[in-house]
UniProtKB/TrEMBL annotation:
It comes from Nitratireductor arenosus. The keyword rRNA processing does not apply. Keywords: DNA-binding. SUPFAM superfamilies: Homeodomain-like (SSF46689), Tetracyclin repressor-like, C-terminal domain (SSF48498). Residues 22-82 form the HTH tetR-type domain. InterPro entries: Homeodomain-like_sf, HTH-type_TetR-like_transc_reg, HTH_TetR, PsrA_TetR_C, Tet_transcr_reg_TetR-rel_C_sf. This is TetR family transcriptional regulator. GO terms for molecular function: DNA-binding transcription factor activity; transcription cis-regulatory region binding. Signal peptide: none annotated. PANTHER family: HTH-TYPE TRANSCRIPTIONAL REGULATOR RUTR (PTHR30055), TRANSCRIPTIONAL REGULATORY PROTEIN (PTHR30055:SF235).
């Protein structure tokens, strides 16, 4: 016998209420992250997010208030995780003396690349979403990126200038953002490199990928330092 819509809805509510709060909210965060990364903020459907999370749509409003609130929570959760590692790595480098360009770049890219290549933590969807928001001209996207990343970015911009005092602030900002762009682009490189090479591309592990990105980015940053 087919269930009516209300019967199915009551069943979802009951299942939702028997799950721990952190399980419900985390399921929504993961589902929302995947949807925003795939379809963008405007294209993502709250109904589809709720369906993938296994909850009714009202639960999203209960935990996050709105679609905007859900996006903010997704970015805050991931950025806090990544930025804490960045800050700790930078502090350790400074405590040990004057860091090299390579050490600075690795300090802010390693946490992102490690997360983005970790399929168990769903990091690829986050990095894909971050790429979309970073390049968006939408005021909401710009605000969320600024709130979550400007603070840590300024610390690394200052660190570049400490390594090369003659470097202008503008060049230091470019050094940070261009290196970050390289790191973000590296996460999905195999999806493009494979077809380009007719599947002869030599796939690398996370450590090898980080070494390649750091080597590539540090060359550009050193050039900017010499330019100054």
């Amino acid at each position: 016998m087919h269930q009516t819509f209300n019967q199915r809805r009551r069943k979802v509510v009951v299942l939702t209420q028997t799950r721990a709060d952190n399980d419900v909210s985390t399921a929504i965060l993961f589902a929302g992250e995947r949807a925003f990364a795939e379809f963008g903020y405007n294209g993502a459907s709250m109904r589809a997010i709720a369906r993938e999370a296994g909850v009714n749509q009202a639960m999203i409003a209960y935990y996050f208030g709105s679609k905007e609130g859900l996006l903010e929570a997704i970015m805050r959760r991931r950025s806090t995780f990544v930025n804490t590692q960045r800050q700790d790595r930078l502090a350790a480098l400074r405590a040990a003396g004057t860091p090299s360009v390579e050490q600075l770049i690795e300090a802010f890219l390693r946490p992102l690349i490690e997360l983005g290549t970790d399929s168990e933590r769903g990091g690829y969807a986050y990095v894909k979403l971050l790429a979309v928001l970073t390049h968006s001209v939408d005021n909401l996207a710009k605000r969320i990126v600024a709130e979550n990343f400007d603070g840590i970015a300024r610390r690394f911009v200052e660190a570049f200038q400490e390594v090369a005092p003659e470097m202008s602030e503008s060049d230091a900002i470019r050094a940070y953002l261009l290196s970050l762009g390289t790191g973000i682009a590296s996460i999905g490189i195999e999806g493009r490199a494979g077809p380009m090479s007719r599947e002869r591309y030599d796939r690398v592990d996370t450590e090898q990928l980080i070494r390649s990105v750091v080597a590539f980015a540090s060359g550009g940053v050193r050039t900017l330092m010499r330019k100054s």
